[in-house]
Each structure stands twice: as structure tokens, then as C-alpha cells.
Design brief:
The protein is α+β, with helices and mostly antiparallel strands. The protein has 2 domains: about 100 residues, no CATH class; about 240 residues, Nucleotide cyclase, GGDEF domain (Alpha-Beta Plaits, 2-Layer Sandwich), CATH 3.30.70. About 35% of the residues lie in helices and about 20% in strands. Strands 5, 6, 7, 8, 11, 12, 13 and 14 form an 8-stranded mixed β-sheet that branches. A hairpin with a 5-residue loop joins strand 6 and strand 7.
């Protein structure tokens, strides 16, 4: 396996080498996501050098103890090859295809499956952003487990398993009902973050989700998470309309793909929504044996839904002396997958 420490020393002593070549060499030897074998061809093609140039470089890297040479046996005549070379000195055959160095990947085994999702998630983000360019706005939903901190404290291992199940249910089943594109952000943490292009898709997703939650009886699968004072599993969320500023010349710049293959997003409009979300939490008395989800919906979303005369409360945040205000109404979803509206939302905001 190549030695990175020796490579650093090599850089200090070879500052005359083109920086581009050094960066390519660094990429080749130390920045592979997965463990792999580096062949003689990898050196010639990646660095755009001749076979003689590649063998000369390999010899120098071996001398610097960056690469470690293991004696080869010529596959043609059986002669031992004790140092890097293209041709066997005994039979004169080309043995460069036998030159291989193994390097370890830079991500952990547990993250490899997620990393394989990178190309797929990048494609989804690009597709979503192209449509978002035309529309100019999206609907952003945060969905948390009610009393999550208290429930997680009872058994973190079970809680993490439970939330991973929830995340998969949302992505694979609940979001399958959407009319337009949707994205699931983050892929880590104990809060679902979702974006929709259609104003009705968060409703159909929550209707499907509440039915599945009821059907799967999570309180029986994770009994240690259901304490005497907890309501489990119940969900508390917020939905807002995020206007995308026109100064993005390429909208896909809004999104980034994390190392674990998840999509992430950040913008000032989203920050304002997060700050308002901090001031909206549903009281425990909202939930009953049938109510599964509480969802605080921004006034602008109701306007797009053409839901008139919705009861609203005003939410205000004052951070760094910057006042942000928004009006929200409350809807719920029951165990039959039905959406219902709350006439007095102020009763249930903590």
C-alpha cells in the first residue's frame, strides 16, 4: 500500500515537478473512493507519459518508499523481477502488465454502499433543478418524530433503526404517489427533509405515509421506544414555500452531493424558513389514537392549494436583530390516510 507520509516528503524534495502532475499522482495513489489495484497502464494514461517515463517514475517512487515493490516472477520464463522494469532481462518479453500496486480506499466500508449512489443522486438533483429553474420555487418539508429527544434517550440504537425504516418508507413508498419530482435531502440525522415541485404532493405523500405507519405497528416492533409518557410513533412537521433567487446562473449549484451519496441544499430563503420552524412545535394534546401527523403549513402554500379561509397564527423570529415573520395553519393526517384541518391552531402550538 502506498505511503502517504513518504509522499509528502517526496513533494518537499521535488518542487520542480509540475503541480498538475503531482495532483494527478496524489489522486491516483491516495484518493480512490474504493480499494483498488493500480496498474502500469494507470500510470501512463493518468499522467500522460510514455512507458519509459512511467517505469522511471515508479522506480523513483519505490526508492522514496512511497510504493513498495514486491518481487515478480516473469510469466513467460519464470525469472524473478527484483526491480521495476518493462522487459524481462532474461527473455526480453514485455512484463509491464504484471506491474500492480494495491491501494486502500479513502471511505469506510460502511459508507461504500451510499457512495455508489452518488451518480444517481447527482442525476436526480440535476433533473430537479432544471424543472425548478422553470418554476422558480419549491415546497420544502421538515418532518420530525414527535418527542424525538425523549424517545431517542430511551434507546438510541433502536431509535436509529426505527428512523432508518421511516426514511426508506418515505423514499420508496410515500413519495411514489407524487405528480412531479421530489427530493429527499441529507440522508442522515433524525429529521426528514423533503422538497416537492407540486403543491399537492406533500399531502398525497403524508396520506400514504400515515397509512403505512399505522399498518406496520412500529410500537410493537420497537416496544422500548414507547414509554409511559411518550406518544409513539407520531410525527410533527412544517411545510414552506421556498422562492429560488434569480441570481443563480446555474441552479444545480444550489444542490451538493455529500460523500454518503445524499443531496444537500442551502440558501438564505431556506435559512429564514428554518428559523420560523424553530418556533412551531405541536403540543402533545393534538395527538390521539388516530392522529398520526401534525403539519404546520405556511400561508403561501395554502394560497397555491387554493384553500381559502384557513385559520392561521403568526410566527416571528428575531435573530441577529433581523425580524422574520410568517403565518402558518395546522393540518393533520389520521390513521385512515385522511387530511384534516384545525380551526384553532393556536391551541396546539407550544
Amino acid at each position: 500500500m502506498p505511503s502517504f507520509l513518504n509522499f509528502i516528503n517526496y513533494l518537499r524534495n521535488h518542487q520542480d515537478i509540475q503541480s498538475q502532475k503531482l495532483e494527478t499522482l496524489h489522486q491516483l495513489l491516495f484518493r480512490s473512493a474504493f480499494s483498488r489495484d493500480i496498474t502500469f497502464y494507470d500510470f501512463t494514461s493518468s499522467l500522460d507519459i510514455s512507458g519509459i517515463g512511467a517505469i522511471d517514475l515508479i522506480q523513483k517512487l519505490v526508492e522514496a518508499k512511497i510504493l513498495f515493490w514486491q518481487t515478480l516472477t516473469c510469466e513467460y520464463c519464470g525469472k524473478e523481477i527484483t526491480m521495476p522494469r518493462i522487459y524481462c532481462l532474461s527473455c526480453r518479453n514485455d512484463i509491464s502488465n504484471q506491474i500492480v500496486f494495491h491501494t486502500e480506499g479513502c471511505i469506510e466500508d460502511k459508507d461504500k454502499e451510499d457512495f455508489l449512489l452518488f451518480p444517481t443522486m447527482k442525476m436526480q438533483a440535476r433533473q430537479f433543478s432544471n424543472k425548478l429553474t422553470q418554476q422558480g420555487y419549491m415546497y420544502y418539508m421538515l418532518l420530525d418524530v414527535a418527542e424525538s429527544e425523549y424517545i431517542q434517550a430511551q434507546n438510541s440504537v433502536d431509535y436509529n433503526d426505527f428512523f432508518e425504516s421511516i426514511r426508506e418508507i418515505m423514499k420508496r413508498e410515500a413519495l411514489s404517489q407524487r405528480k412531479k419530482d421530489a427530493l429527499s435531502f441529507g440522508e442522515v440525522g433524525d429529521c426528514l427533509k423533503l422538497a416537492f415541485l407540486s403543491e399537492v404532493d406533500f399531502i398525497t405523500a403524508m396520506e400514504k405515509f400515515s397509512l403505512i405507519v399505522q399498518k406496520l405497528k412500529f410500537e410493537e416492533q420497537f416496544p422500548r421506544l414507547k414509554g409511559r409518557e411518550t406518544i409513539f410513533p407520531r410525527f410533527d412537521g412544517t411545510v414552506g414555500k421556498i422562492i429560488i433567487p434569480k441570481y443563480y446562473d446555474k441552479l444545480e449549484k444550489i444542490f451538493c452531493i455529500t460523500l454518503n451519496g445524499g443531496i444537500d441544499f442551502n440558501d438564505y430563503e431556506l435559512t429564514k424558513f428554518f428559523r420560523l420552524d424553530k418556533h412551531i412545535k405541536t403540543k402533545k394534546c393534538f395527538y390521539s389514537d388516530t392522529s398520526i401527523i401534525s403539519l404546520w403549513v405556511q400561508e403561501e402554500v395554502f394560497t397555491d392549494l387554493k384553500w381559502e379561509n384557513m385559520a392561521l397564527i403568526e410566527i416571528e423570529d428575531n435573530t441577529h436583530n433581523l425580524i422574520k415573520k410568517g403565518k402558518f395553519g395546522l393540518v393533520g393526517f389520521d390513521d385512515k390516510g385522511k387530511c384534516f384541518c384545525i380551526n384553532e391552531p393556536s391551541k396546539y402550538n407550544e
